[in-house]
Amino acid sequence: MTQQQARNSAQATWRANASALAQELWRDKTGLVSLIILVGIVAMALFAPLIAPFDPAAQSLSHRLTPPAWLDRGVWTHPLGTDHLGRDILSRIIWGARLTLLIGSCVVLFGGALGTAVGLWAGYNGGRTDNILMRIVDIQVSFPGILLILLIVSVMGTSVVTLIVVLSLTNWMVFARFVRGTVMSLRQSAYVEAAEIVGCHPARILFRHILPNLITPLLVLSILEFTNIVLAEAALSFLGLGIQPPATSWGLDIASGRDYIYIAWWLVTFPGICIVSLVLSLNLFSSWVRITTDPQEREKRFAHSYMSRRGKRS
Amino acid sequence: MIRKCLNALGTTALALAVGTAGAWAQSITIAIGSEPSTLDPQLRDDGGERQVNDNIYETLMARKADGALIPGLAAAAPERVSESAWEFVLREGIEFHNGEPFNADAVVASVERIIDPTNKSEQLAYLGTIVSAEKVDETTVRILTDGPDPILPSRMYWMKMIPPQHAQSGNLDEQPVGTGPYKFVDWQHGSEIRIEANEGYWGGAPEIDEVTYRFVTESGTRLSGLMSGEFDVITNLLPEYTSAVPKFAAVEGLETSVFILGADNALTSDPKVREALNLAIDRESMAKNLFGGYATVAKGQPVNPKAFGYNPDLQPYPYDPERAKALIAEAGATGKTLRVNGESGRWLKDREQIEAVAGYWAETGLEVDIVIEEFSQYLDSLMGDGPRPDSIFLANSNELLDADRESTFLLHMNGPAYSNSDTGLTEKLSKARTMIDEQERQALYHEVYEYVRGQNYLVPLFHLQDIYGLSERMEWTPRVDAKLLVSEMSVTE
Known about the structure:
heterodimer, A: mainly alpha, globular, B: alpha+beta, D-Maltodextrin-Binding Protein, domain 2, Dipeptide-binding Protein, domain 3, 3 domains, 15 helices, 22% strand, disordered N terminus
């Protein structure tokens, strides 16, 4: 087999794998829809300057609280209406997607990385290391988050970076606890023992033999955490500890529009729908990912579809 | 069995009939924004505590609903007997709810208790000039101040009179006992406080017999409680909801929103920049659209229109965006960054005012950097020792209805929130504080605020109105001083 052929066949396998995956996704309609929504939201965030009809901060007090276009008094210039300062809600939602996604994913990434590192180390070493690290986690969990946040914000000032740091520092513990537990049980498994006997370096054991087992559950946990972060960010921003105007996020728009809920429901409803669809899509997609990447779940799924196909035939 | 049932029914019907007959005993429920931290009337500066205790306790001086100062427990307006002493003659024959007599001894005890440094009363901010009180005879008292104090009568409108024996041996924190039209019934912490009419009140028994106070922090919850008929009076109604509630009442209140400009800061030390900031704001449009008309554009000064020293001849700053832009360009400030400090959630539409004004300022060509701070941090920016902000928002409340309050707080260099180093101005304000002659004093304040308007040290915005939501059956005209005096309310059924 020449090199060229080898490359070709590798490409072919990859292509076959991808198309198999696509087919699987096609069959799971909830997974498919949630992926489409996610891609849509990400695209919206990326291309905000191109698709937003207005500057999200441009205010016009005489046009405040205009309802969505399809209601009385609504106008098609502001399809989703305007907020309490006369800013276009559609544009704010499009721009708000940026910070909502940026902060959510950065925090999950940094907080997740920190928590996973601590969890791996504590779970693998056990003993005193484990004791010390887990007590740190306990202390951090019992420490009032808002106090830590105030402390950091008073030192660093308010900015998106501060917000990411602050939320990462208050949300890594759940990752650490989860990873530690899983690592402790994997530590007893035969293949890890085998690797140790062969004389593998602990780093190799951790990253080569243990970590791959954690990827799927970590993914699921990250997505669940993401939803918490979106809400936490909104709360902090409303108190004046997070995003500063004229920048905005979905959560912040909800927080500042809630006073008007009885007369102008569109202020909170549209950003709310965005958060719900983001969170729901992430959850559904993560469950598809979990099932697809877990061999046991795949078997179950295969059996299920096989049975239903046979049922139909008879 | 059936007879028994019928019997029971009959009794219930009878009870109901008696109940309706007794319904002349009228009771109402008032939703307030926060639970009192204590019911001791002399220690805290706590709005929730005042909303309840204003009905139980009384003061030597009182105010009419429009803000005019009138004698309360005093029989007449006080007299100055020397440079630093005022003499009050008391009404006779008044008793506290527990039977203790109200007399000169009670006044002396009240004054001594509130100025006692060991009590650390937060209300000293309003009463700081008082040094002692002397009994002249059974119904005459002298209050001594640390120097000439022209506004002592207004200060005495702040000091609630307490029964000396109960204050010594009883529990004022939990068991308020005053001379007022209502008596304390009970306080279920976390849920409600009840008070009832004092039939023997010296001013005549009030019309409403029972009042229940409920503590509701969320404005949305207060609103839905009013709509569902649970509450009869709610505070801080948003202007947008005036058309949604059964009834509402609005009154020009004590608060004035204003930005303090940092007259010593690099950017805002330039008078042209400060003038531009004042000219750039369309205050009329904000008052009309943001407040639905429930705010009045301030006439070029932060002083409350009802307050002594208000200059009615000053004009509001005009809206002239072109001139503002030109001034910024002239000052060479185009593209420079102006920091705008503020907070969120403390005052009516605070965040919206800040964002709207910052939007106008951004149109002049300045870069505007808004910093909404957490409240304690905000207070530090407002009154702390750190560097002064370029511009900081606040809604200033004038409880004494005297220009001294705004002047000391916003401009005087010994005050907490001044942002200038104008010693000439400070000298004039110090002089005005102790001037005895009312005419001269008024003239001096007029002069000062004309000068301040020209210097653009401040960006006065609006005199805010207090809006109350009322149930269908309530009759009430709210007061300028925002007191919820139930004795002035009535119920139609």
